[in-house]
Amino acid sequence: MRVLFYCQHVLGVGHVFRSLEIVRALANHEVVMVTGGAEIDFEPLANMVHERLPGLMMSPDFKTFIPMEPGLSLDEVRARRLDRFRAVMAQYRPDILLVELFPFGRRAFRFELLPILKGVRAGEWGRCKTACSLRDILVEKPDPAKYARRVLDMLNPHFDLVLVHADPTLVTLDETFPAMADIAPPVRYTGYVAARSAPGAGTALRHELGLDTPLIVASAGGGQVGNELIRAAIHSSIILAETHPHALMAFTGPYAPDADHARCQALAANHPHITVRRFTSRFPAYLDAANLSLSLGGYNTTMNLLAANTYGLILPFTQNREQAMRTSRLEQRHAVGLLAPADLDPARLATRITQALTRTTTATPLNLDGAAATARNLEELVGLG
């Protein structure tokens, strides 16, 4: 089976790494990963070919795209992307086109996705099924009814399957997409997709780092937002160092502005127990090694926390409901702690950290086998199951 997996990143990178976990679960099949954003440092996979479309990135005000190649207009990049996408489809002729989020999101990419989806339905590249790879919670829309109609108009004619990467005991799709009853293709819950480090990876990493004290890992996802959390973690770590010896590993994010990264490095200077880096490809191992995580509430980081069985204090991104909704429900299951903006006061955060490191409650488990279930569902879609 050959799967062409379309996954675009213009803000945040968590969904890319979630998609890579699905690629790993498809180890017995060939996957063509199609991206078109900024370069991401991820481990090459034996079963995956990476095809990049001409790059687009989000503008600083989050309102439009900016071409990554100087001198090209947005229209020129769009045309080149569609031409390249068509060429990739013709070259690989996949059995399945798997699309991350669209049409529930990524609407700005409809200029290239709708022509490709129509071409698939017309048999332009042979027999090919289509599936949507969907996260658990959708962001709210100003006109929900209009949004639902738009989604259904693109989903129902063009997709054969919707895979929701969630555990329905925590959240169901109809809670954030009320028109679920009008979805024509089958909707299947896979469980959450989570990256698991290799057995013993956390212990090995602690030995590699020479740690004999608790490890706190602070992270800000892609880094476009969340630097205030990293700064607060550094300030709190300095406060705690005298009474609660520990190590802090802070990741500002691969796309953090240079000034934000430099500011965090300056704050950590002269404090040898604090290390500031942009990014690590070994993030699941760091979470496995950690005694506590401080992070935003994106899907990927949150599920990696749960897979590592590491407690986390989470500051949800406030532009929409997604992270707050997920985090609050997980807090009810004693899996994480919810941080409010006021908790970023260094003394207050130091108290929350101390409490978290000494907690005794046990979390209610979730289904975290979403990658394997996704692979099984795709196999069934083409008659291999």
Percent helix among the residues? Answer: 25-40%
What's the number of extended β-strand segments?
A: 15
Q: Rg from C-alpha positions? A: 21 Å
Quaternary structure of the protein: single chain
Question: Quick one: CATH superfamily of the largest domain?
Answer: Glycogen Phosphorylase B
Structural class: alpha/beta
Model regions low in confidence, pLDDT < 50 over at least 5 residues: none
Query: Averaged pLDDT, please?
Result: 93
Across the major sheet, the strand order is 3-2-1-6-7-8-9
Specify the number of helices.
Answer: 12
Number of domains: 2
CATH architecture of the largest domain: 3-Layer(aba) Sandwich
Any idea of the CATH class of the largest domain?
Alpha Beta
Gross morphology is globular
Order of helices and strands: EHEEEEHEHEHEEHEHEHEHEHEHEHH
Fill in the CATH topology of the largest domain.
Rossmann fold
Give a structural overview.
This protein is an alpha/beta fold and 385 residues long. It folds into 2 domains: 206 residues, Glycogen Phosphorylase B (Rossmann fold), CATH 3.40.50.2000; 157 residues, Glycogen Phosphorylase B (Rossmann fold, 3-Layer(aba) Sandwich), CATH 3.40.50. 37% of the residues lie in helices and 17% in strands. The chain has a 7-stranded parallel sheet with strand order 3-2-1-6-7-8-9, sandwiched between helices. The protein has a 6-stranded parallel sheet with strand order 12-11-10-13-14-15, with helices on both faces. The chain has a two-stranded antiparallel sheet with strand order 4-5. The longest helix is centred in the N-terminal third of the chain and has 19 residues. The termini are close together. InterPro entries: Glyco_trans_28_C (IPR007235). It comes from Pseudodesulfovibrio aespoeensis (strain ATCC 700646 / DSM 10631 / Aspo-2) (Desulfovibrio aespoeensis). One of its GO terms (molecular function) is hexosyltransferase activity. Pfam families: Glyco_tran_28_C.
